[in-house]
Amino acid sequence: MTNIARFEEELKHFDWSIARHELGYKEGQPLNIGWYCTDRICQTGRAKKLAMIWENHAGEVRRFTFDDMRVLTNTFAAHLRGLGVQPGDRVCVFMDRVPELYIGFLAVLKLGAIVQPLFSAFGDESLLTRLESSGAKVVLTQHKHGLKVRKIRDQLPALETSVIIDAGDRKLADGEVGFDLDNAPKVNDFESYPTTPETPSVLHYTSGTTGQPKGALHVHNSVFSQYLTASWVLDLQESDVYWCTADPGWVTGTSYGIIGPWANGTTQAILDAGFSADRWYGFIAKHKITVWYSAPTAIRLLMKEGEEAPKRHELSSLRHLASVGEPLNAEAVIWSQKVLGLPFHDTFWQTETGSIVITNMPGLPIKPGSMGKPFPGIVATVVDPKTFEPFDHPGAVGLIALRPGWPSMFRQYWNKPEIYASKFVNGWYLSGDRASIDADGYYWFVGRDDDVINTGGHLVGPFEIESALLEHPAVAESAAIGMPDPVNMEVPKAFIALKQGYEPNDDLELEIMNFCRKHLSPLAMPQAIEFVTSLPKNRSGKIMRRVLHAKEWGEEVGDISTLEDE
Ligand code: PRX
Questions:
Q1: How high is the pLDDT of residue 5?
Q2: How many CA atoms lie within 13 A of 195 on its CB side?
Q3: CB–CB of 438/463 below 8 Å?
Q4: Which of 189, 220, 251 is the last residue of a domain?
């Protein structure tokens, strides 16, 4: 049987009970991700196996076995319980990629509380909108990031405690407590809270076109999807050393940087340091990484460094590569096949889907530039944007639609039921992306169907940028779009109409840029500002970002009359 025929065969007989069976889960039992990622691995004879190999920018390395992870998550969980954390409370994890981030994340789940991971590069305003929305009771953080929390805590009535993991002898403010995990008395036995499959687990914030970021709420049931896709798509085997380059502030870093791999009992290598080609290749060589999950922007950066850089390192341990977050261009797949001897396998999914839904699974021949096919158990299609019915001919460009029902599907947007409901039409969940399906059933990504900016694999909502700009006294109106960028695919650009009495000039541009820097995360910072006398609007006065976008990309603006009533 050919590979592709075997793949199709697999699709026919698939049932999610495979994951329940492999994880030894029986209906009616408690299901706690924290327990499945630590205690269960120990109980299945892998207590002494390495769970985490951690390295920082200085090259310092620490190693943790699954038994270490079990005891440390117990210790952290017991401490948090002592601080009054109850099941269902939101606990934010706001740290660099230090071991306490990973341990704290699982500890919160062991308590039956909801973990809200936030990217540590967020400034206080990005932090404020997300903490205000979640109503987090506790934040787990480091001293340097705790200072940002300290600045805004007066505006966060629900926030009781900031737990500072590296406080040392520093003077703490009201509402801050120090917790030194390494030196805390260890808690060997801790009973994980008996969460059910439908108990909320992770709350990830994601940006949309309108309004502030929304919290996509996941449940413990997600582990079945994350476990099985990590096993089948990332092809994790018992002897692998796996590296996911994503930060747990984003969903890739939790679904495939924590839950999926550790539920499989996989050894993960974690690098808490910035990008450089030599550092990355050196990290692979030093820890003999076998499976590597990264993103197109990183691959493009590596491509820029040329073909000599990988030759300086011993990379023969690598055996499987995968990518996520942005379109994986055909050149990147061809480049990695040539230079690393392996192709990158594309994986498409979202914060909302919780796990990979469309992919070039091993065994499926890769068509470079295509995302591949739906994972077994995922019912996907492309629907006509007008009728929301699936197209009946290959090649038509429409909206990617998924039939709800796989285990890791998000269950709600936190406190935003209307926006949640608006994502479902005709029984389909609409991803907000455009694609086509070819005659062989392969999916080809076309673009977003909304105004969200995907910069280097990170979604940035234009509204967040525009709101920050509008706070500047000179700005009357603003619109943010993505402009082309050779590495990050797109980067934010702002169009600004000034209030009367202000003249566009370089000094004002610099002043507005500096103002933004204080309000926005580095990812959301506009890389260019263009002053305009007015912005294109529809009849109801809504700014038409799509018109600006089309001009910026040299595309046809299209039929503006259809936009006018939006
Ligand atoms: O637009 C798609 C793009 O990233 C969006 C999801 O972003 P986020 O929720 O932050 O999750 C990112 C990591 C899962 C999608 O709606 N995207 C994700 N994967 C791909 C992609 N675009 C093209 N190809 C992909 N493989």
A1: 65
A2: 29
A3: no
A4: 220
117 in Cβ contact with 140 (< 8 Å) = no
For residue 344, report the distance from its CA to the centre of ligand 1, in Å.
16
Q: Supply the DSSP string of 325-375, one letter for each residue.
A: SS---HHHHHHHHHHTSSPEEEEE--TTT-S--EE--TTSPP-TT--BEEP
Say how far apart CA 454 and CA 292 lie, in whole Å. 22
Helix axes 330-339, 296-305, angle to 10 degrees: 50
Is residue 1 pLDDT above 60, yes or no? no
CB 78 within 8 A of CB 187: yes
- Alpha carbon 493 to chain centroid distance? 22
CA gap 159, 340 in Å, rounded? 48
Q: Pick the most confident of 198-212, 224-238, 451-465.
A: 224-238
List the alpha helices (DSSP H) in 404-452. 417-422
Our answer on whether the CB atom of 524 is closer than 6 Å to any ligand 1 atom is no
CA distance 89 to 380: 34
What total of structural domains would you count in the chain? 2
CB of 175 sitting under 6 A from ligand 1: no
Please state the pTM of the whole predicted model: 0.94
Q: Is residue 23 part of a domain?
A: no
CATH code at 472? 3.30.300.30
**How high is the pLDDT of residue 186?**
98
Q: Which residue would you say has higher pLDDT here, 541 or 189? A: 189
**The token pair that represents 452 in the structure block:** 């969200």
| CB atoms near residue 467 (< 10 Å) | 18
Cβ atoms of 213 and 130 within 8 Å: the answer is yes
More confident residue, 463 or 264: 264
Ligand 1 contact via 410 beta carbon (within 6 Å): no
**Rounded to the nearest whole angstrom, what is the distance from the C-alpha of residue 59 to the centroid of ligand 1?**
31
CA of 347 to the centre of ligand 1 (A): 9
**Of 198, 220, 242, which residue sits at a domain end?**
220
Q: How far apart are the first and last CA of the chain?
A: 51
Read off the tokens for 280. 């990355």
Residue 564 has pLDDT above 60, yes or no: no
* Reported confidence tier of residue 9, pLDDT bands at 50, 70, 90: confident
Inside any domain, residue 282: no
* Helix residue spans in 446-505 (DSSP H): 462-470
Residue closest by Cα to atom 26 of ligand 1: 348
- Is the CB of residue 348 below 6 angstroms from any atom belonging to ligand 1? yes
pLDDT at 425: 97
167: CATH: 3.40.50.980
116 found inside a domain: yes
Q: So what's the pLDDT on residue 560?
A: 59
The alpha carbon of 502 and the centre of ligand 1 are apart by a number of angstroms equal to 39
Which residue range(s) make up the domain with 461? 451-553
Among candidate residues 333, 231, 331, 332, the one with its CA nearest the CA of residue 291:
231
Mapping DSSP to helix (H, G, I), strand (E, B) and coil, where does residue 140 land? Answer: strand
